[in-house]
Amino acid sequence: MARTLITNGTIVSATGRTAGDVLVDGETIAAILAPGQVEALGITADRTIDATGKYVVPGGVDVHTHMELPFGGTTASDTFETGTRAAAWGGVTTIVDFAVQQAGQNVYDCLSQWHAKAEGSCAVDYGFHQIIGGVDEESLKAMTYLVDHEGITSFKLFMAYPGVYYADDGQILRAMQNASESGAVIMMHAENGIAIDVLVAQAIARGETDPMYHSLTRPAELEGEATHRAIQLAKVAGDVPLYIVHMSASEALEEVAEAQHRGQNVFAETCPQYLYLTLEDQLMQPGFEGAKWVCSTPLRTKHEHHQSDLWKGLRTNELAVVSTDHCPFCFKDQKELGLGNFSKIPNGIGGVEHRMELIYQGVVTGELTLERWVETCSTTPARMFGMYPRKGVIAPGSDADILIWDPGATTTIGVEHKHHMNMDHSAYEGFQIDGKVDTVMSRGRVIVEHDTYTGAPGHGRFVERGLSQYLR
Ligand SMILES: [Zn+2]
């Protein structure tokens, strides 16, 4: 088995930084050595990577992606192959994607389909959450089975999208009770979809069809309301661990903070789009341009304080995780399905490649510490979803999933610059990052170095996850 030494870097964890060398043996980390120990102990390796002046951090863990997701008459444009390659380019070494079940479908069949899509295709390791779009006796039984036998310990429910994935309060309660028994985490898309559908129909009837109405018909209050309801239902269901996905609104964050204050097992993630992009600057761009930024929950107005609240929430751990909700659609032929009717625009933004970069920029601008960057983008996602300490930390015995980050170089994001996702545009076109992905290692194999991808489809393996390691 090949041994690699990463020397002279600054090793950053969720709790601090140290100078030292990392010895990788085969697929795992064998040792962390204080400066001088390599020579003193006479340690040799097949290969040495000099990380002088660079940060050595655990590879990114993105727990919210949708590769090849069928949505609104089309399919998300990244396959597991192209999407995980882009993830690798962005310093991400583990994704957790969503297997989808809809009402009337068999959960096991749906899960098999997702395994078939991903197996042999991925550049980095991957796990699955299971979406339960139809809560009934059969799917409830399957939930328990998946926790016990399939390494799938988290289930996503939807309070939005009536007629597609929507679960009513009774169904939500039953799924939560089931998860409470098995120890699983319930992930929630918290928006009041019934009320939203009324607002959407009214807007279309008034001739308000431009992309910006996507946000205006999904007001922050309806995210806050659904978040509140989900939290109360989770409490009734025996304090089942509840994880609110893609949080964008101050109103929702307040609900989460309050529940945490009471000691409830309630957690939340946000995504780079909600930290950087707004209704006015992106969604309201002239013509149909704004369609690029149609996602749910939607981008919010910059005239309220959503973004500053979300950054603050990340600092205080009201928001524990940054994920991407990577769900890419090309502008041509895909986003264009909604020309003349915003409600037909496929919902999603591609970002799996840029999360480490965009959140690192928050370190540069003073929003977060370096340690908090590592914690929210790697360590906590691994703990939240039962992959720690195999993932999310640089420690002896952990998988050698390592990102070497160069704070002295810069990155320009955009289709003509750094862009490896299968999309004809970038949601972050022209963004400048004061740092750069230098080298990426996945289970001991270097998959990105010297601006070159050296990985391969099929290197990435399925990660069977345990129960959450983040509960109170
Ligand atoms: Zn999603």
Structure keywords:
472 residues; Urease, subunit C, domain 1; TIM Barrel; 2 domains; eight-stranded parallel sheet; 14 helices; 31% helix; binds zinc ion
Whole-number average pLDDT? 97
Structural class: alpha/beta
CATH homologous superfamily heading of the largest domain: Metal-dependent hydrolases
Number of spatially distinct domains? 2
Briefly, what CATH class of the largest domain? Alpha Beta
**CA-based shape:** globular
- Quickly give the CATH architecture of the largest domain: Alpha-Beta Barrel
Helix content: 25-40%
- Beta-strand portion reads 15-25%
Largest sheet, in brief, is: 9 strands, mixed
Strand tally: 21
| Distinct small molecules | zinc ion
Number of helices: 14
CA-based gyration radius:
21 Å
Gist?
This protein is an alpha/beta fold and 472 residues long. It is 31% helix and 22% strand.
Account of the 3D structure:
The chain is an alpha/beta fold and 472 residues long. The chain folds into 2 domains: 3-57 and 393-453, Urease, subunit C, domain 1, CATH 2.30.40.10; 60-384, Alpha-Beta Barrel (TIM Barrel), CATH 3.20.20. The chain has 14 helices and 21 strands. The protein has helices at 37-41, 80-89, 107-118, 137-149, 169-182, 193-205, 212-216, 220-236, 250-261, 272-276, 279-283, 306-316, 355-364, 370-384, and strands at 3-12, 17-25, 28-33, 47-50, 55-58, 60-65, 70-71, 74-75, 92-102, 125-133, 154-158, 185-189, 242-244, 266-270, 321-322, 402-406, 411-412, 432-433, 436-442, 445-449, 452-453. Strands 1, 2, 3, 4, 5, 16, 19, 20 and 21 form a 9-stranded mixed β-sheet that branches. Helix 4 runs parallel beside helix 5 (169-182). The longest helix is centred in the middle third of the chain and has 17 residues, at 220-236. It is globular. It starts with a strand and ends in a 19-residue tail after the last strand. The model has no long low-confidence stretch (mean pLDDT 97). Zinc ion binds at residues 64, 66, 325, 327.
